[in-house]
Description:
This protein has a single domain (18-119), classed as 3-Layer(aba) Sandwich (Aldehyde Dehydrogenase, Chain A, domain 2). The protein has helices at residues 28-31, 47-55, 70-79, 112-116, and strands spanning 18-20, 38-40, 59-60, 62-65, 84-87, 102-103. The protein is built from four helices and six strands; from the N terminus they run E-H-E-H-E-E-H-E-E-H. It is elongated and about 75 Å long. It is of the alpha/beta class and 132 residues long. Helix 1 links the parallel strand 1 (18-20) and strand 2 (38-40). The mean pLDDT is 86. The longest helix is centred in the middle third of the chain and has 10 residues, at 70-79. A two-stranded parallel sheet has the order 1-2.
Amino acid sequence: MLTGGARVERPGFFYAPTVLGGVGPGMPLDEHEVFGPVMPIATFDSADEVIARANAGEHGLAAYVFTSDLNTALVMSERLEFGMVAVNDWMPVTAEAPFGGMKGSGIGRETGSEGLSEYLESKAVYIGGVQL
């Protein structure tokens, strides 16, 4: 633990933002979705290794890419199997964009036009051989 990890004194179950170093394959933090202020830091040798490790998990709600290279940003966002990919951003959520994950993180989307379609019922009508 590099910083944080302590419980915040207030009603409920809160803990301070936490940064953990040395996170690697097989560790629970590397394999599970964590809904809390936790930033795991892992080392890697190539972008292919990062993508393989990220996509190996059972979940896929959001992924975060930090880079100054546009090509890296595009390649990573295309290859990562996550419902949302944020590049140089910590909060990939807006009312106009779909919110949702892949794999064990859920099916379907909320918000955006994709979210509205969840509340609509489509109908196909086929008409042939009629005259006015």
